[in-house]
Design brief:
binds zinc ion; 7 helices; two-stranded antiparallel ribbon; 16% strand
Length: 153
């Protein structure tokens, strides 16, 4: 018999334990720029809403659908989702501030969050559905702790 972890598939929103899912308010939430980018951005850069980042695949989750299975290797390491942060998402957090993975790891339903590389964070979150996992990522990016209060000197 396979160990339980190997049978895991992403729960559906009817069977998950997410604290929140993507909703209109969250999708419309506009993210401030990180301090490191404020100088370069100029003033005519339009603000970025979370929904826009998701539409442009700057924020993503794998597996993306309920019933989906993660990479077997990932499961063996005890993770369920890999979350994706693209280049445009990077404009909204500072490397010197609290890491996005740290904030993410404090969300209900996420037992562990590990920065895999610059663009990927792995999470151990067996009871979250893909939508809820993406929501947690979006909320972490909206958390002011991931940005410095002012630009570094
Ligand atoms: Zn859910």
């Amino acid at each position: 018999m396979w160990p339980f972890s190997r049978q895991w598939t992403a729960p559906s929103p009817q069977h998950c334990r997410c604290a929140r899912h993507l909703d209109d308010a969250l999708l419309a939430t506009v993210l401030p720029r990180a301090a490191a980018w404020l100088h370069e951005a100029g003033e005519d850069v339009p603000p970025t809403a979370i929904g826009s980042l998701i539409d442009h695949e700057e924020l993503g989750v794998e597996p993306p659908e309920p019933g989906g299975e993660p990479d077997e290797e990932l499961l063996e390491e005890g993770f369920h989702y890999s979350l994706w942060l693209g280049d445009a998402a990077r404009l909204h957090y500072d490397d010197e501030a609290t890491p996005v993975a740290t904030v993410l790891g404090q969300h209900r339903g996420i037992r562990k969050a590990q920065q895999e590389d610059r663009e990927i964070i792995l999470i151990k979150a067996p009871r979250l559905c893909p939508d809820g996992a993406l929501t947690a990522l979006a909320l972490s990016l909206a958390d002011p702790r991931v940005r410095l209060a002012r630009a570094p000197d």
